[in-house]
Amino acid sequence: MRGKILVIVEHRAKEIREITWEILSGLKSLIDNYDMELQAVVLGHRIDSLVGELAESVAKLYYIGDEELEFYTWERYLYALIPLIEEVGPKLIIMGHTSTGMDLAPRLSAAMDSPYIPDCLNFRFDGEDLFVTRELFGGKLNSEIKAAKNKSYFLTLRPGIFTPKGEKGQQKQVKGIATAFDKKGFLTQFLGLLEPPREGIDITKADIIIGVGRGVGDREKVKVVEELAKVTGGVLAGTRPVIDSGWLPKERQVGQSGKIVKPKLYIACGISGASQHTIGMKKSEIIIAVNNDPHAPIFKVAHYGIVGDLFEILPAITSKIRSVKSPR
Amino acid sequence: MEVFVCLRQTAVVKEEPKIQPDKKGVDLSGLKRHLNEWDAYALEEALLLTQRYGGDVSVISLGPKEVEDVLFHGLAAGAKKAIHIFVPEREQIDNWVIANILSREIKKYPFDLILTGAQAEDDGCAEIGATLAQLLKIPHASLVMKVIYEPDAKSIKVERELEEGYMDVLRLRLPALLTIQTGINQPRYVSSLRLRRFKKAGTILRVSFDELISEAGDVYPKKEVVRLYPSRPEFSKVEMLGGSPEAISDQLIELLISKGVL
Ligand SMILES: Cc1cc2nc3c(=O)[nH]c(=O)nc-3n(C[C@H](O)[C@H](O)[C@H](O)COP(=O)(O)OP(=O)(O)OC[C@H]3O[C@@H](n4cnc5c(N)ncnc54)[C@H](O)[C@@H]3O)c2cc1C
């Protein structure tokens, strides 16, 4: 396969987001066998320092600068990107499966009448045909998908599966692109960026985290997990549904839309292991998972697994630790 | 305000889903089905908005006969109209086709807002909402956690969730489409008695998929499943601890002590 790959860069608060570095590194190995040129486009306002950094990592960088692009909105990105993509003619247009990718990629691909495959783990070409692998049912099945033949394809890649290697080369060509926005025509107005609230405990500082999942059943039963937290000196954290249901406060949410934690020990109790959760805990030093479903995807990231009812397993562990810590 | 909510019915899988012999689909027979988790929050948000500002909620779903269960759920929860676009289970249609068909049907009615769930539990694509908005040429916001209606300006103010606790605040001109994130509200409980009552007496408007196709032209999938296969944990990488709860505890504690965490 020959052609260009165009990566749409993500940045927030004057920093390039990790996902962009992940994609740039991941792509280098994915396209090793193809004669493809890695290009990127960054949209923003007064981000010259970011532009310099990026230009060392790709063959060619497009920079679309405009005060309207200081913050991401689907609309300004869409109108700025369509003419560029038409002109450059990339085979693949790639973003991360992030809040930005989920918001923009389906819409942009629809506007350009191109196939879009979200949340991919990889891709490959067989002749002219594009194949990708992605997950179904929260990671229980893999699905190999073939895109209908087209001149270009849109993909989002799953965050957290490629490791940024930080290879830098010579600073390459940067091509500035001007915009021609019809500002009055915008239907979406950016009003502000809210920072994460800084209240409550900071679970990212904990050495031991006991993770509560929906499998715990209800708020009352969180006590069973809390007992384990007490004897281990760990703190309680939870998955999104646990926070949504009010069993634990928001600052204890682990995952993509919560906190990224790397404790010495993470014990996942009744957690299925959805990618949006595991991205927040899979770098923990030791991961232990308790789940009554032997096929739960959490066992794909755990180091030690226990298949069983957490209401039988956890109390046994708790009382054992108690007796070890205070022997009679 | 007139609000449409797109509902998807998803299968509840425990253990490992059964793959069909041709490896292109999941055998759903015998599996419980329910309203997609994210869609339950979208439905609730629509009901809350119309309770507060007036107007009605319509629910729409595409799929086999079984999806009428989620439409009845919508009616029992407070929606005034339900539309079913019938497609046989086995039909290979992708989210692009679904979004096109939904847009053709919804276009026939006046609306201020369309809500969908942020993603579906089964395919996790998060694709239909923004695609539908593009097809209808209306603004959208995804992963929405707060909606404030501004009737005088014919707009809404929304907060949409980004990563790690950041939020965008946006104003969208109506009509608009929002994809709703879990946690925005607490979906109401619908008793089984009430649900049964609506299943008996509720009305669903049935629309033919083929008619929507012939009215506005063919639309083809842009992707197809080639092969499904189980994504099992690699038991070579994870060490499984077995035995009685006591035996498991013994192994675990020994391990934690040897690793220096206890
Ligand atoms: C944009 C976006 C962002 C998201 N951000 C996050 C995030 O930051 N954090 C997050 O966690 N999720 C996030 N999610 C949600 C995520 O997709 C999953 O829905 C969620 O992680 C599932 O939580 P869970 O594992 O607790 O629940 P479930 O998936 O319902 O799993 C419950 C598990 O408990 C097991 N179980 C049940 N009973 C028992 C028992 N008695 N003993 C032992 N095991 C039992 C079951 O086998 C099952 O595996 C996000 C989703 C989206 C779309």
Explain how this protein is built.
- Chain A is built from eight helices and 17 strands.
- With 328 residues, chain A is an alpha/beta fold.
- Chain A has two domains: 183 residues, Rossmann fold (3-Layer(aba) Sandwich), CATH 3.40.50.620; 123 residues, 3-Layer(aba) Sandwich (Rossmann fold).
- In chain A, a hairpin with a 2-residue loop joins strand 2 and strand 3.
- With 262 residues, chain B is an alpha/beta fold.
- Chain B folds into two domains: 215 residues, Rossmann fold (3-Layer(aba) Sandwich), CATH 3.40.50.620; 30 residues.
- At the A-B interface, helix 4, strand 7, strand 8, strand 9 and strand 12 of A face helix 4, strand 7, strand 8, strand 9 and strand 12 of B.
- Strand 17 of chain A pairs parallel with strand 13 of chain B, so a sheet runs across the interface.
- Flavin-adenine dinucleotide sits at the interface of chains A and B.
Short description, anyone?
The complex is a heterodimer of chains A (328) and B (262). The radius of gyration of chain A is 23 Å and the shape is elongated. Chain A has 328 residues and is an alpha/beta fold.
Features:
heterodimer, A: 328 residues, alpha/beta, Rossmann fold, 2 domains, five-stranded parallel beta sheet, 17 strands, 26% helix, B: 262 residues, nine-stranded mixed beta sheet, 31% helix, binds flavin-adenine dinucleotide
